[in-house]
Every structure is written in C-alpha cells, then in structure tokens.
Amino acid sequence: MGIRIYKPTSAGRRNASVSDFADLTKGYKPERSLLKPKRKTGGRNNQGKITARHRGGGHKQMYRVVDFRRAKDGVMATVDSVQYDPNRSARIALLKYSDGEKVYVIAPAGLKAGAKVQNGPDAAPVVGNSLPLKNIPLGTTICCIELRAGRGAVLCRSAGTQATLMAREADWAQLALPSGEIRRVPSTCRAVIGQVGNTDHMKVRLGKAGRARWLGRRPHVRGTAMNPVDHPHGGGEGRTKGGRHPVSPQGKSAKGGSTRQRRKGSNSSIVRRRKSRRYGQLKLH
C-alpha cells in the first residue's frame, strides 16, 4: 500500500496524489450476490429537509453487503480477494467458507488472497480472525470491535484505525481507542485481530475540486459571503460578521464544545475521556 503522486501536468494535477492500490487483488470482480443498489440522499432526511449540508451528486455506487457480526463459528474460510469499496475508506475482503458461503468483511492490514481465517472462541489470535475479547491476549492490536455482543462491529472500522486491549476485569475488557479514550466493553464482544488496512488513506490529496464532486461533496460557502436571510453572519457592508461570535447557520455557537449527552447510559463505560483540541491547547473534557 502506498501513494502515487501525479506529475504536475496541469494546475489540478499539481500536488494531487492517489492510492497505488497495490494491496488489491488483480483481476477481481465484485461478488454480484453481495451487491445492492444505493440511492443518493443529497444530505436530506425522510422529510426532504437538508440535515447534512454540502452533500449531493457524485458517482453512482453499488453497496457491498459487509458482514460485521462474523458469527459463523468453527468454519474455515479462505480469502478469495481483497477489493476496493467505494462506500468506505477501508478495503474489503471476500471470504469463501468451506461450506460454500461467500461474505465480505473489513480487510485488516496484511491480509492477502489465499489466507485462512476463522471466527469464534476457538480461533487463533492471528490477523484476520474474529474472536471474543476474553479470548484475546492483552496488548493485542484489534479492530472492528462490537459494543454489544452479537450486534456487529461499530468501533475501528475505517482505514488505518486500531485499538489496543489493555486489561480485563470480571466481565469487562478495557480498550484504548484511537481518539485516546479508554473505554470498558463487555468481554463477550468480538473483535478482529489486526489494524484496518489502507493505512495511507489520509495522505491522499485530491488536488482539485472535481475529485471532491466525484465523491458527492458539494462546495462549502462561508457564512459571511451569504445574505442575512441565509446565515447569521450574512449581510453588512464589507467583510463583517455583525460583531457576534462564530455561530452555525442555526445560530448555535461554533467555538466547539461537548456534544455528548450528559446522562447517556454508556457514560459509565468511559474510563478516561478523549483529549479535545480547543483554542490550541489540549484539555480533558
């Protein structure tokens, strides 16, 4: 896995880069039985109102059905191919179980075609295997972690992310997450051994606005460039915000701050909160 830098043949190519896709299996085709059509929302909810700004357009995509539960225990699977997924930053691996079933899973770094993987408490703690946290040695790098047993992986699923199993106590396991947060998770929850692949994803530079449009990202317009009817910072003679502090289009403060619910039930599972970068300093929540 690496980054290929374009030659500066034009202004859009200058400083642009792209993944070299060396970690993908050559000559593969997506498994048609695991493809579903994906409808664009344009950032709108079921009422047609925009809830996520600057979204729309983009290349048409087919959704790959990914198995986040990894609940097929005791059956050996072979990695048929490592493939590109347009719906996520990570790579996906097509597994073929010995009974003939095919599934997509998130591909950890180092997993290649032909490798053998297994699920369940009897699986060995090697890259690509999925097993409960109570069966994983302490200090192991893990990804695709469940928060509730049997519900499927929700933590550390994007490219290059990983967590570390720090300790176990009674029925809980303690994890160090990429954000710096230390959290308790039931030890019956499953995780995949290894770090998520495509580790250089964050180093890719789009280089031109058109590549962002291909991804479905529309232009971001400053509030000060709008009219007063469109944004609290709009209007006025010259460049001015009207003498007020930065706010969102809805008038809420844009200076940062905690967005987590104070009475959220899972607050008791957080041993140490992540560090937040605010006003150039690191502070604990």
TrEMBL record:
Composition-biased stretches (Basic and acidic residues): 230-240
GO cellular component term, pick one: large ribosomal subunit
GO biological process assignments: cytoplasmic translation
Domain Large ribosomal subunit protein uL2 C-terminal: 125-253
Large ribosomal subunit protein uL2 RNA-binding domain sequence ranges: 43-119
Function (record text): One of the primary rRNA binding proteins. Required for association of the 30S and 50S subunits to form the 70S ribosome, for tRNA binding and peptide bond formation. It has been suggested to have peptidyltransferase activity; this is somewhat controversial. Makes several contacts with the 16S rRNA in the 70S ribosome.
Record's protein name: Large ribosomal subunit protein uL2
Originating organism: Rubripirellula lacrimiformis
Organism phylogeny: Bacteria, Pseudomonadati, Planctomycetota, Planctomycetia, Pirellulales
